[in-house]
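Section 3.1: Structural characterization of target chains.
Under the original work plan, the team committed to producing a structural model for every single-chain target entering the pipeline before any wet-lab resources were allocated. The record below documents one such target. The sequence was received from the expression subgroup and is listed exactly as submitted; it comprises 90 residues.
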Amino acid sequence: MLICSGATDRQVQAISGAVQEFLKKSGIQPLGVEGEANAEWVLLDYDDVVISVFQDSAREFYGLENLWDAPRMEIDENVTEIKKLSREMN
């Protein structure tokens, strides 16, 4: 599961759109997309990977990160590429 957020509905839509566009170039299509019109919480279902893109307030309200004890990887907002996972994620 990948969880990320944007400050506004337009940012959430832009993040969601960029993810879909990037994966589409590799021939990967989502099984489903929910929440794009409202853009408070957009869910992208890629079968083995589910991506949630929240507005900051919705992310705080739902607190998905706190539902289970799993390794987490914090990524700086200026990072443009992740070349390897942290040791905790392996």
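The chain has one domain: 1-63.
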